[in-house]
């Protein structure tokens, strides 16, 4: 008897055979005496004598073990590829985060050094040239306003890029995965 003879496919096959109906490409597996699993595909047609009495089935069968092994190998290969792709994405994200941290730290240190130098320079020029400092404060205020406007423009550009990237991601991975990425 085949392995898994209590499976639904075997139960359907029994019903078909008991009803004396023809069947095509019924696939089943058996375990050989050496422990090896073999797969077969059979098709059959019921035979009846001239009085309509059932005589048995006539049909064909073929060994499909190699095909089944190849199908299983393909399934495993696809699963492994999915695992590797997920792992690759994890590595990419980890590397992106590391680079972002490094850039943030480096940029923060550089900006702090510039700020300290600017403060020192301001203090030195204020004491030496008070009139120049009043004019410089007005220029500084204008520059700050200009800088705020520039930052606003940069923020809008970054926001536009983020929206475009999100749309691209949604098209690339489909709506369900995009929602999962957006939430996570």
Which structural traits does this protein have?
184 residues; alpha+beta; Beta-Lactamase; three-stranded antiparallel beta sheet; 4 helices; 3 strands; 70% helix
Set down the secondary structure blueprint.
Blueprint: H1 8-18, E1 23-31, E2 37-48, E3 54-63, H2 65-128, H3 130-173, H4 175-183
Antiparallel strand pairs: 1-2, 2-3
Helix pairs in contact: 2-3, 3-4
Could you characterize the architecture of this molecule?
With 184 residues, this protein is α+β, with helices and mostly antiparallel strands. It folds into three domains: 8-63, PAS domain (Beta-Lactamase, 2-Layer Sandwich), CATH 3.30.450.20; 66-128; 133-184. It has helices spanning 8-18, 65-128, 130-173, 175-183; strands at 23-31, 37-48, 54-63. Strands 1-2-3 form a three-stranded antiparallel beta sheet, with helices on both faces. Helix 2 packs antiparallel against helix 3 (130-173) and helix 3 packs antiparallel against helix 4. The two termini are 50 Å apart.
**Strand fraction:** 15-25%
Distance between the termini: 50 Å
Radius of gyration: 38 Å
Helicity, in percent? 55-70%
Mean pLDDT: 83
Count of separate DSSP helical elements: 4
Structural class: alpha+beta
Total number of beta strands: 3
Largest sheet: 3 strands, antiparallel
Largest sheet strand order:
1-2-3
Low-confidence stretches: none
Question: What overall geometry do the principal axes of the alpha carbons give?
Answer: rod-shaped
Helix-strand pattern: HEEEHHH
> How many structurally independent domains?
3
